[in-house]
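user: Please review this fold.
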Amino acid sequence: MRQHRTGAADEGPIVCRTTVFVTVADDPPVPLPARLSYNATDPYAVCLSLGVPSSPPVDWVFARSLLARGLSRPAGSGDVVVIPRHRCHPDMVRILLRTRHGAAVLEVASRAVTAFLHRAEALVPPGTEHRYIDLDRVVEQLTAGSE
């Protein structure tokens, strides 16, 4: 029983390559290559991949709606918090990433995030995500370890 519409799920992921400025503790910000990606096969989520070309990336997957809300007001309360423009950096969005080992603040150009979200929303409009879920695949994944 496939629920996704044809077309959008067949398109490749939407990708935005950018640079984030990472601050850990009181250290000065460090530029780091990053990639935002969105795929209609996982319609509620975006992936933020951080890393350098010589090592495997670190992926953070979180709600597309969290990223969108964070452009205009603070959003999130767990491992990922998105904070809109700050008076010191009006062209940047802050993303706070937390683990049990610590936290990092990432700053990314709000223009890049906005353009990425517009492309993702054109592919899968907000409120229609449920139409793109492949229920057969979800059930298969949930029952794969039960035998």
